Fold these 2 entries.
Entry 1:
Amino acid sequence: MSKFNFDKETTREGTYSIQYEGTEPLFGRTGLAPFWIADMDIETPEAITEAMKKRLDNGIFGYTIWKNSKFYGPVKQWWKSRYDVDLTDDMITYAPSVLYTVSEAVRLHSDKGDGVILNMPTYNAFLKVLKGNDRKVVPCSLIEEDNEYAFDFEHFEELCRAPENKVFVHCNPHNPTGKVWSREDLQKMKDICLRNDVFFISDEIHMDFVRPKEKFVSMAELMDEGDPIIVTTGLGKTFNLASIPHSYFITKNKELRNKIVYEYDHRYNVGTANSLVLAAIDAAYTDCGEWVDELNDHLEGNFDYIEEYINEHLSEYLSFKKPESTYLAWISFEKCGIEDAEMHKALVDLGGIAVSPGHIYDIADNGRFRMNVASSRMRIESGMERIHKTIEKLKEDGRI
Ligand SMILES: Cc1ncc(COP(=O)(O)O)c(C=O)c1O
């Protein structure tokens, strides 16, 4: 019997949420059911909101120090209890956001015009910030077979050998495919990077979402003293805190840590902590492990529902493999034999659903869309009906 109700109806009315209020400007239509940006239609656990309220009651939100036991302690305890990783205070550094750290680490380890290796498909904001920092995106496509993704080590090593490629930005677990990388895979990636003097950035923001049979392994576990490796993560996804900006990174490379801290203190003057998030981190990492476990069970149920729905009604047109992690369903419509742009338009115009088109995560069309399943089952059911309706209408019109 679940202690928490993940099917509770929620509202974002009046909150200026991108998921709802940002849908019409982006998709060009009203009345769409949104399943695109990666935040949840699930309330943050009460233990966290209560801790934030308590902090609010103090009424003073002046500049705040993150170097304290109420930050380090809960982070170390979470990593030990959930991933059996022993962290020490000096390995953990607070930073304004995950992508802030990715960009800063890229800037510190490459120059304008240098190559940064990214797997394809990739989290789309990596593409954005590399462009914004005048770095060259160097694609290393994952090998896909029947919706299973694998790392192309041969191609990767070839790319790492090129002296102009200076950094690898890895995503583990992987957005959008949900792939959880094995220890062996991670060790191989690390060895190749070290052999070729390529800096390794591991974005692990989706780490807490794992299907029951999967085990997340962090790059933090494979780090040795001084390694040119940084892990960046936060609580934004796990506890639905995306609008309360924060993150932290883990490294055993003192020089790198000092440089990033220097940059954010001296270049941007953003070296103080968000006071509300410190309260949230303490409550989340101390009291909300059970909530995360039950949330994962709920997500597993949503993925099962989608899998069964597709098998029962849409298997001629769609294919889907349950992701090993994340709350993102990566659904293939390759069987439809339709252009990507036509399908994405049909989902909006005929189905009334806003999902993320696969090509935004790639350098080419890939016959897929990404659907956020972090909602009540009822919302997922209505989303699947909209997808079904899209396919039926395309069939009726002889377009598939
Ligand atoms: C892989 C990945 N990294 C980072 C982020 C965002 O992190 P932040 O807002 O802290 O930059 C997301 C959000 O979707 C993500 O999927």
Note: The mean pLDDT is 97.
Entry 2:
Amino acid sequence: MGLLFGSFLNVVIARVPAGESIVRPRSRCPRCGHQLAWYENIPVLSWLALRARCSSCGLPISWRYPLIELLTALLFLACQRRFGWTPELVAALVLVLLLVPLSFIDLEHWILPQELTWPGIVAGVALSVPMGMGRVRDSVIGAVVGFLVFWGMEWLGEKIFKKEALGAGDKDLLALIGAFLTWKPLLAVIFLSSLQGAVVGSLMLLVRGRAGPAPDPEPESPTAPPPATPPGTESPQVAEGPGPVPKPEGTEPVVAREGDGKGEEDGEEEDDWEPGPTNIPFGPWLSLAALEVMLLGPWLREVLPVPLDMLFAGAR
Ligand SMILES: [Zn+2]
């Protein structure tokens, strides 16, 4: 099931940032338009059998496709081991199905689309109903607190430091995480995501000169292949045309930590914002921390030293 859902998440990751339907049309090669037969669409195996190339034109197929399928499968397995066949398992699987695409979209496009986060917040509250009214209350509180904490940090950052520290979408993502995991582990999520993001971001800055991924390539780049992408096709990043990805309405680019101070005007739309070398997309780090807390919370509470284990007191 994880492999199959992972295959679907690849479609979500390719199409949602472009504002395209995730239901139709069927998957095609972005260069030659070759429509994938069912046997070319089997998770992981088809990628191996095709030797990572389009069967029609030989265009390379990114390793990201089987990676996301395997990742989703492993996370599904981990959720089942953690929760057994309970209502909590359903909520955990849905959270995985939201956090995986949000992370990869944020890594590539520096946005957290509200088409995913807002329905996700509703789903998080709705899926806590089978766990009792106490859980529903904690879930609603979690969504509100998650939103307000980052909203407050954003406000403070703008008023005091005159810098944008967080992207607009990070508020929605922390609200989503709060809706699924309740308010109790939110401090642990913020702690783990900041710590891991800072450590890895600093290492990347040292090694590569960039803390986060590079922005989308400039349009009209002379070395890029001609844009032969028919409308409504998937776009593996190796084959993507050079054009900028159209932003879905109502979403704003995610402005990550350690902003370099350009392109922000009191929360206005920031279409010109470009990630600087010290920026990192924060969505993947929040997602990773949420999964760690959900799957490893009780274990972390056991192994961490005394002041830190308090953070995981809410983990059951
Ligand atoms: Zn092709």
Note: Residues 56 and 294 are 43 Å apart (CA to CA).
